[in-house]
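@channel sequence for tomorrow's demo:
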Amino acid sequence: MTRQLEDTIDALETNDAIRVLDAVDGTLDALRRDALNLGETPEIKEIVRRIDAYKGHLERQRSVLLAPTP
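structure tokens (generated this afternoon):
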């Protein structure tokens, strides 16, 4: 996740932050599908790897937001 997105998420209420994360995740899913439809070149594989890494960051951030607070 980019620093700007992290800062935005941190500034939002939990429900709003989760909605933003869901929207970004959906966009990344669409980009991943589009990339895979272009073929399997080393460049495309690298793009898909990076998209998957971003999606992993989003999932970790979502887990932090949904974790129970003491």
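heads up for whoever presents: The chain has one domain: 3-65.
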